TrEMBL record:
Transmembrane segments: none annotated. It comes from the Bacteria. Residues 14-141 form the General stress protein FMN-binding split barrel domain. It comes from Sphingomonas aracearum. It holds the Pfam family Pyrid_ox_like. This is General stress protein.
Length: 167
């Protein structure tokens, strides 16, 4: 499945997870025709290719199924589109592990809030783009030159975002 363009696959996977940790805001939606909505990802370093989101049980994604997640980094220099499957996983130990003050602000009843649900998205494939225009590319932009792919970005289609695994 790996399709690579001017990319060190391991490097782009590592960069992806670093960017998500730095700014965990993503657009999440089921592939059922409804619009995506912004949610804050909770990362569990023990579970690769998995994203977690605290949502209300009445959230449109809580019913689960095929899902799509879009990510744009804080610096607008990294983009990702992730396909996977969404499901509710209300494992109390995992809720305790991922819980923080930001989540608590959304659920006044705390971990016992009757509307609390932990949405799990298992990533099945991903497309990752890193845009980092080189110095020579920036000079060309200033003077109207043509930028080559090697001067502008990295791109990879991967079956797993797990670091250290084959693409």
């Amino acid at each position: 499945m790996a399709e690579v363009q001017n990319t060190n696959v391991e490097e782009i996977k590592t960069t992806f997870w670093q960017k998500v940790a730095d700014s965990p805001y993503m657009m999440v939606g089921l592939m059922d025709g409804q619009h995506s909505e912004p949610l804050t990802a909770q990362l569990d370093k023990d579970q690769v290719d998995t994203l977690f989101f605290f949502v209300g049980k009445d959230n449109r994604a809580a019913k689960g199924g095929p899902a799509m997640v879009q990510f744009v980094s804080k610096g607008h220099d990294f983009f990702a589109c992730l396909a996977g499957n969404a499901s509710i996983q209300n494992d109390r130990a995992l809720i305790d592990k991922l819980w923080d003050k930001q989540v608590e602000a959304w659920f006044p009843g705390g971990k016992e809030d009757p509307n609390l649900a932990l949405l799990r998205i298992d990533i099945e494939s991903a497309e990752l783009w890193e845009t980092d225009v080189s110095i020579s590319g920036r000079v060309k932009m200033l003077f109207g030159g043509t930028i080559t792919a090697s001067e502008s970005s990295s791109h990879a289609k991967v079956a797993t975002t797990a670091e250290g695994s084959p693409a």
